[in-house]
User: Fold these one by one.
Assistant:
Number 1:
Amino acid sequence: MTKILTNLSKINDLLIAAAKRGNRNASNVQIIAVTKEVSVERTQEAINAGLIHLGENRPEGLNHKIAVIQADVRWHYIGSLQTRKVKQVIHHIDYLHSLDRLSLAQEIEKRAEKPVKCFVQVNVSEEESKHGLTVKEVLPFIETLTSFTKIQVVGLMTMAPNTEDKALIRSVFKQLKQCQQQIAEQGFAHAPCTELSMGMSNDFEIAVEEGATFVRVGTALVGNERGEQDEHEE
Ligand SMILES: *Cc1c(COP(=O)(O)O)cnc(C)c1O
């Protein structure tokens, strides 16, 4: 078995156990393999292992992989996106996880040829270093998108603080879920907002317990070739 198959099987086991603890069905959770730090070869290996959702965070990395990988997979853009780079990615992606401002929505509205599935990125913990709207800003922001024909708000996305404090991480995920439910209850045609993109290598189990429908897993699944090379160089 390749390393990725071994990793995937462990992650699947943990995910199923976490779903059980959260009284959820694991089949409602999709794994996005975050391939931003790995080569085309390793990305292809992930696809061969059965992964169909792939995440990239740079236009260059995304477009290079799309050009050479011919598989029928879903591409998720998970990084912050500069307005001037919208035109480079918007025709190639299936999901954008980082809608965080009106100027970005306006550029998508102008450039996209069909509706784009977007997650509104929320900075639940209000860390200075993180992108995203505060919880309070989410509903008014989504209301301003009502007349947009190319933006479909499928859900909310967050990154938990990088901490060992599991209770803090859990409270961030709980707040995102509450916010998502509040939006979903509005019944907006442009914002069904049924999905929750939360959880990474270190915290996906908590995220699944708290309702994640997409987890974004990089290092624990496909590794980090940059980091691995650094180790060799030491
Ligand atoms: C890199 C990245 C991930 C994956 O992180 P890992 O800790 O390697 O699993 C998930 N989400 C976003 C937004 C990222 O930038």
Number 2:
Amino acid sequence: MGLNDVTQAVTKACEEAGRDAKEVALIAVSKVQPLERVEAVLEQGHRLFGENRVQEAAGKWPAFRDRFDGVAVHLIGPLQSNKARQAMELFEAIHSLDRPKLARSIARLAQEMGHCPDLFIQVNTGEEEQKAGILPAETDGFVAECRALDLPIMGLMCIPPVDETPSLHFSLLKKLAERNGLSGLSMGMSGDFEQAIALGATHVRVGSAIFGARVTA
Ligand SMILES: *Cc1c(COP(=O)(O)O)cnc(C)c1O
């Protein structure tokens, strides 16, 4: 597809849902992509990107930020507590706040550093063993815990199980967010961002549809 096609598809999905396209942020997920492809998307004017590993982002984004103004990079992959400081220095937002210990580490560092990225709580909507995230039933309590720590919680994030209808998970995430007074919904990837927009996504995370298939080593 490419950036222009995806941008148009986002606009169309917004129109169909009766939403303002400005309400939906398109996060171009650049993990593992060759630098030339990322550079091409920057040259086209896109400025919002997603990475799933701290180390990989640290190796790539400082140089791009020197060359391109207004870049924002969001962490969308798992974060170890011992990398929290580095992540808070590198990213404008973290979409993978998934446990109390990490919340406490980020809160302590935010005090010390005097700033904190926007945070999304990752919810394991499919209750999958192997997947990170707060369980749906524990979400209200965890949101309250994060608020007590003064963390800037912008919304919720989910990655639906591969073999299930994503819309059920998007609806559940929306319900959990509304119940907790949260407006941000980070949901939808290359295969399902249009459905996610129809169900209220404010941040869609799209990789392969923009950059092409990931070339993994
Ligand atoms: C890789 C990744 C994406 C993008 O996936 P595509 O299917 O390539 O669009 C979105 N969200 C997360 C958390 C990811 O790790």
Number 3:
Amino acid sequence: MEIKKNIAEIKKSIPENVILVAVSKTKPIADLQEAYDGGQRVFGENKVQEMAEKFDALPKDIQWHMIGHLQSNKVKYMAHFVNLIHGIDKLKTLQEINKQAKKHDRVISCLLQAKIAKEESKFGLSFEEIEHILKSPDFQELENIKIVGFMGMASFSDNQEQLNEEFASLKNFFELHKKNTSTNNCQLEILSMGMSGDYPLAIKNGSTMIRLGSSIFGSRNYSS
Ligand SMILES: *Cc1c(COP(=O)(O)O)cnc(C)c1O
């Protein structure tokens, strides 16, 4: 019952236009089912195989988001059902997604992951690298993927000023390109920022999609 209650409370506290992704990585099917029974339809996972197993076991009106760092050789295991891929940081990965999506006659929506955290270890593209991809002919010829927005992860820090700065920088970059970028396979609508520890601040900075795990399902036994 906790899971349902958590979802209801979070939904009440966020604006209606903000999409809640329930990050269910490492959690058992029963937990996802409880969230589903509470009305949740968007789930995020960070391992392709785990997501595919859960897809097979659960109702088919769920939207599955891949939020983890993606290896190209795994794309084929989710190309038939994944709804949104958040963490793209290479043109090569987009090309592989395009190839696999084509086999299923689908167009798969993707977010480019921007590096906004000051920490060294984070995945993601610089703003310059994102611009370079969006302008490149190799990207523009891809017909079975669509870039629908950007995703960012702020630093693991309590420094609100720093987090605010990181979120705001991506919001500004997003708005600039929302106006000025138009190709057949790029239409920016989604800004995915905010996790359990920082989502209120992310929403203040214009996030339209938050990815919450522990605040819905409780803490995970191992971090991933
Ligand atoms: C695990 C994870 C989350 C959720 O983290 P919580 O702190 O449990 O809310 C969000 N985004 C990504 C990319 C993740 O890997």
